[in-house]
User: Fold this.
Amino acid sequence: MEHLNPETLARLVDEAPDAEERAHLERCRECAEEFEWIRSTSEALGRLPDVRPPRGDWAVLEARLVSEGLVRGERGWAAALARTPGWMRAAAAVVLFLSGAGVGLAVGAPGTPMRSAGVEAGMDVGFVSVEPVTVDEAAEAMRRAERVFVDALLRYRQMVDSESGDPGLVDPQRRYAALEYFLAAGEAAVREAPTDPFMNGLLASVRAERQAARQAAVRQASQQDWY
Amino acid sequence: MRALYERYAPRVYAVVRRIAGDDDLAQDYAQEAWIRAIRALPTFRGDARFSTWLHRIAVNAALQALRRADTRKRREAPMPEAVPVAPSNRDALLQGRLEEALDRLPNGMRQVLILHDVEGYTHEEIGEVLGVASGTSKSQLFKARAKMRTLLGSIDRGDADHGVEAWSI
Assistant:
């Protein structure tokens, strides 16, 4: 008697046997046992437990997240700023100086209205101040704002890096389009964390940078028209 | 972020470890998966459960990293010697044997077997993730189950030898 091959038995774990296969399994104890073995192994695979990662894995991951600017570590903003174009670094430095924050962002205590460094610096930010109800809510708003901002920053940096590494050498129209996105992200970030001095300062800087890019794009267009 | 990590890290590490078939690779792939997930957090719309969304990212990250990596050389390295285990916990022994057999499966078979039998993906979903037809996924699965039979048989014979050594001390 020819036995059912192992792949056929493996198939029968999921699919009903045809009449011939059923008849064989009923009269062949060896194949029936083999089938049961494969079926129970398949079931056991479905019960395999989760696996704890090795010790120290979070520390390694956190260091990488900080180095990539995805979360803020002890000196996360300093590292992120070191990789940021000059105009942003200058803006951030001014805002951080004005806010007296050094590195890191301030979160107001419950019931304490927070003043914006953007306002103190006379920047045309145009936000509406909203007081967080709790420290946790304020912290969550900050985290959301940071995420949006970092995402926008990464997109802008990717575009600059893919061109020449120098924002001034990027095609003005493309730079303008990228800054439009960055501006939208910045405005969304400020809506989430309206009293965040860092975000407000960067938003003002992005607006100025977009204005410069628009003027450059207009100049470029007029030169092209001339020819 | 750490709370999120603590909650889901075992799930992510388990699937990545099994796809990688190697501890060192698994750590790299798990990190890659988390970096991707954190970058993509703003795009999470809540259409699926967070754990499902994260799981998909982890599976994709591991599969793509495995394709990129020159794993052939590493996987041909000698297997680490099995540590004799006192037969006190049948489940742990069975799980250990299954994990060892999974590690020894060829990449393609292992990926399909893990996604289907361990993670519960359908063949259509596997085809989408791996970029193959669902029929290919099915045939790989049946081959993988049959191969597991052979591998577990050889591991069992090895376990018997270890048992003799352990008891003869």
Summary: The helical segments of chain B are 2-20, 23-40, 50-68, 71-75, 90-104, 107-118, 123-130, 134-168. The interface with chain A takes residues 1-2, 5-6, 9-11, 13-14, 17-18, 23, 27, 30-31, 34-35, 38-39, 41-42, 94-95, 98-99, 113-114, 117-118, 120, 138-139, 141-146, 148-149, 152 of chain B (CB under 8 Å). The CA atoms of residues 13 and 30 of chain B lie 6 Å apart.
